[in-house]
Design goal:
The protein has helices spanning 19-35, 56-60, 69-81, 154-162, 179-193, and strands spanning 4-11, 38-42, 84-93, 96-105, 108-114, 135-137, 142-145, 167-171, 196-200, 203-206, 209-212, 215-218, 224-228, 234-241, 249-253, 257-260. With 281 residues, it is of the alpha/beta class. It has one domain: Nitrilase/N-carbamoyl-D-aminoacid amidohydrolase. The chain has a six-stranded mixed beta sheet with strand order 5-4-3-2-1-14. Strands 6-7-8-9-12-13 form a six-stranded mixed beta sheet, covered by helices on one side. Strands 10-11 form a two-stranded antiparallel sheet. The protein is globular, with a radius of gyration of 18 Å. The N and C termini lie far apart (52 Å).
Length: 281
């Protein structure tokens, strides 16, 4: 099985609480990406529902189970198009609300990620903390998923990379206050983990919040491959070679400049990271 494939991001506007309209728009863009041979298509955070809900009950009214109607819709779509997709949705599980991602392929639901780092913003004011960072092996690539604010915590990407992720997927709803995050986080995380990184933001406005686009794909050296540095809808595509991030040792000058950001770690020195409170509290 070839390790080389194309990944696509879909930077798009989203209609608040209009799941059917959003699914239809997403499916149309998925098929356009497939026409350009994209094998994995990534949509923004909360792509099926929108983000700026005013309360728990309002958000729960459009939340679904991970294997609910939207999952079934994309399972049929991915089976027909022979591709994989990652999309954001609001998930209800055991009475709790989660900001979640589904990874779906031709054979059905592969996995679900629930956002762990929750800002005091939009629907995240009412969601519960997710479980863990997991990596999903599709055979031709290994995908690690996290969401928006997760990207501001380097531990998120590092956990995924340690578990073997070739590409770090970050669907987002970045507003104007996240301009610097959109510009630098994907590059920093891809460079420090020697892995591909795709951030997929939305555009448009919702209940007084604007969304800035600026989606991008970075290579394993932290260099922009594609940068949608605007607030327009777009489908952007890059080629991924999964064999590259699996070799963490970078030999710049043999015997003189060699770097391995995994072998060179000292986890025994990092205990402070897991302490519950910062110094002075």
């Amino acid at each position: 099985m070839s390790s080389v494939y194309k990944i696509a991001g879909v930077q798009m506007d989203i209609k608040l609480a209009e799941i059917d309209a959003n699914r239809t728009a997403m499916a149309a863009r998925l098929m356009l990406a497939r026409e350009q041979d994209a094998k994995v298509i990534v949509f923004p955070e909360c792509a099926t529902t929108g983000y700026c809900f005013e309360g728990f009950d309002e958000a729960m009214s459009v939340a679904e189970s991970a294997d609910g109607p939207t999952s079934e819709f994309f399972q049929q779509t991915c089976a027909a198009e022979k591709c994989y997709t990652v999309y954001g949705f609001l998930e209800q599980k055991e009475g709790k609300l989660f900001n979640s991602l589904n990874l779906i392929g031709p054979d059905g639901l592969v996995g679900t990620y629930r956002k762990i780092h929750l800002p005091f913003l939009g629907v995240d004011r009412f969601t519960s903390v997710g479980d863990s960072f997991e990596v999903y092996d599709l055979g031709f690539t290994r995908i690690g998923m996290h969401i928006c604010y997760d990207g501001s915590f380097p531990e998120s990407s590092r956990c995924l990379a340690i578990k073997g992720a070739d590409v770090l997927v970050l669907p987002t709803n970045w507003p104007p206050g996240a301009l610097a995050a959109a510009d630098v986080i994907p590059n920093a995380r891809s460079m420090e983990n020697h892995a591909y990184f795709i951030s997929v933001n939305r555009v448009g406005s919702e209940r007084g919040f604007d969304f800035i686009g600026k989606s991008k794909i970075c290579d394993c050296d932290g260099v922009d491959v594609v940068f949608e540095n605007h607030q327009n809808e777009s489908i952007f595509i890059a080629e991924i070679d999964s064999s590259i991030p699996r070799n963490k040792k970078l030999v710049r000058v043999p015997g003189k400049h060699e770097i391995d950001r995994f072998e060179d770690r000292h986890p025994e020195k990092y205990a402070d990271i897991t302490r519950l409170k910062r110094s002075g509290q």
